[in-house]
Amino acid sequence: MYESDCKSCAPESAPAPAAHAQGAHAHAHHAHGAAGASLNKLTTSATLHCLTGCAIGDFIGLAIGIGFGLGPWATMALAVFCGFVSGFAFSLVPLLRSGFSFAQAWRAIWLGETISIAIMELAMNLTDYHVGGVQVASMLHARFWLGYGAAVVAGFAAAWPVNRWMLTRAIKKPCH
């Protein structure tokens, strides 16, 4: 199931990924058959990858919003925007470096990443808002860091089952 997904991610002019040429044992990162543990590991990896991009963008947006004294809603909107930009960049750049055109890379990731980032950003910003981190006057306030930390955990927890579901239905591809 996932082997064909990697082939569908590969640009037409690029050779097949090296893992596919090395035999079936090289597919340990794929979830074949009843390998639920492999699927869980793949889901965790994909969710952490997405979380890294979102968390960096979110932090930048929060830092700018709080630094300029924007209100909580404007700060969260900026954090969401930055989270999407950073999240997409984390998925696009490796594909572009491996020989994909921008259009090919975008087609490979847009739907899965959009859903994953949206769920993650919703959970992160709701959590940060309710903890109060986005409402402080300075990033030096302990509540900022408590809110950001809780938001990162909530983002992972909310996106993990969604990413697992998308991976099992080939909506999100494990190629990056």
UniProtKB/TrEMBL annotation:
Name of the molecule in the record: DUF4396 domain-containing protein
Transmembrane segment boundaries: 48-70, 76-96, 108-124, 144-163
Top-rank lineage group of the source organism: Bacteria
InterPro entries in the cross-refs: DUF4396
Ranges in coiled-coil conformation: none
Boundaries of every DUF4396 domain copy: 42-172
Keywords: Membrane, Transmembrane, Transmembrane helix
Claim: Cell membrane is one of the keywords in the record: no
